Amino acid sequence: MNTDIVKKVFINFLVGGTIVASVSYIATFMNPVLASIWWSFPLSIIPSMYFMRQNGKSNKYISKLLVSTTF
Asked: What's the whole-model pTM score?
């Protein structure tokens, strides 16, 4: 198994987990409305786009993902 791919997936996992954990923390200890605003901000899609671009996916492929996630 290629360790470079494992490293990239692990970094993506950490970023995504941090986003989910921050939303959970804000909703639990602060304000659920604030947490939903934080979640609606496109933080969760940015690491995915970056990961796909680093792995050679075309702009057309990434834009198809973005359009699909808006629905």
From this structure: 0.61
